[in-house]
Amino acid sequence: MQAQEDYERRLREEMDSKSERELEIERLAELEMQLIERLKQKQMRQRKAYQQLEAVLALGSSTRKSSSKPSSPQVPPQASPPPPQEPTEEEVARAFSMYDTEASGEISTGCIDGLMRDLGVALAPSQLSQAIAQLDSRQCGKVSFGEFLLWWKG
After folding, report:
1. 20 to 30 Å CA-CA from 36: which of 64, 73, 78, 114?
2. Strand, coil or helix: 123
3. How far, in Å, are 103, 123, 131 from residue 126 at the CA level?
């Protein structure tokens, strides 16, 4: 009789514990959904801010271009074209953000090849491996924009 009562008591305790865990899981799932929604809203605000910044930067550069007067005569057609210019920080940031789909400030090391090509630098496989080794010193498979920009300028 005592064993039966102990068994039923333990069974009730386990059922209660299970119910509590299920309620906790539901609460955590709701919290997770709220956090995901907040993250989506923040990402949307960041995208809008980035688009506004991009528009302002484009407006500023077009204003400078249109207001500047040519100071030298036209270059004759037989002159060689100027060497390609290195991308500006803004252009590097814009290219990086195209690969930063989660707006986390980091990209996967697997994106480095495409990013470099977008910036006009095609790397040989050995160069790409070396670049990734330099960029991903923590060996986490991710590269932050700050790390990339420092490496790019280096």
Report:
1. 114
2. coil
3. 29, 8, 9
CA–CA gap between residue 44 and residue 47 (Å, rounded): 5
Place of tokens 């960041």: 46
- As given in the structure block, the two tokens for residue 101 are 């789909």
> Judging by beta carbons within 10 Å of its beta carbon (0-12, 13-18, 19+), is residue 50 exposed, middle or buried?
middle
Give yes or no for a contact between 136 and 112, defined as CB atoms under 8 angstroms apart. Answer: no
Q: Where are the beta strands (DSSP E) in 7-150?
A: 106-108, 142-144
Instruction: Answer yes or no: pTM beyond 0.85.
Output: no
Q: Which fold has domain 89-153?
A: Recoverin; domain 1 (1.10.238)
User: CB-based contacts of 135: which residues, under 8 Å, 6+ apart?
Assistant: 109, 112, 143, 147, 148, 151
**Alpha-carbon span 52 to 35, nearest angstrom:** 26
pLDDT along the chain (154 residues), means of 10: 95 96 94 92 88 76 52 51 72 88 89 91 90 89 88 84
